[in-house]
Amino acid sequence: MSTVYYQWLADADYQATWDYQTELHQDKVARKRANREREKTGDWQLESLNHHLLFVEHKAVYTLGKSGSMDHLLLNEKELTEGGFQFYKINRGGDITYHGPGQLVVYPILDLDDFFHDVHRYVRSLEEIIIRTLADFDLVGIREKGYTGVWLAANGMRPLRKICAIGVHLSRWVSMHGLAFNVQTNLGHFGNIIPCGIQEDSRDVTSLSEELGRPIPLEGVIPHVQRHFEQVFSCELDYSTLAPTI
Predict the structure, then answer these.
(1) Which residue among 164, 196, 218, 235 is the active-site one?
(2) Is 196 a catalytic residue?
(3) pTM for the predicted model, two decimal places
(4) Which end of the chain is more exposed for a tag (fewer CB within 10 A), N or C?
(5) Is the pLDDT at 209 greater than 60, yes or no?
């Protein structure tokens, strides 16, 4: 069973968090390359390759994936500044999304050599974590064909709605970026974008608090996500690593 080192980054700045996960990711890729070279020469003194899991609650920020369109950001630079929003173009898959207070963002930096070589299975596994977490709160999370993320089915009152967005990046089977789970998120901030590039009236965004009709703090959700991460990836979280000040 693999060990994954867990860190809670609280309300860390997006750029600082991105830099930190990039540092962890690049270090892991570099160690893999070094190990491959050593194996070729018969040197079996291999570098250790730790897995990492970062949980963070970001300050208000919009991020645009490499396949996204700037047209899906509905604010100009002045409006972003006045609204207190940051904006970044990043190297994950997917389109534009929002991160902010009340949203749990999860960044696994995993070497999938130790798990499985299947990008689709990896994304489905991230979805499964949130589907199981929603079930703990008596909600039925579903997958929507042709889309990533976790959704709640339409009913007589509301359309199909997205509660968790997913965007990942892999290099040499080492992952970064991850998922954003709306727990007690300000859903009004999604009105400044076309979330994930989806413009259909039959789809909307939601949060756990919105669905349950009461405030749900992140502290009440994090243990569920941690437990289901361990179950889905058949791993053990190690909580001994102190989070950096970023």
Answers:
(1) 196
(2) yes
(3) 0.90
(4) N
(5) yes
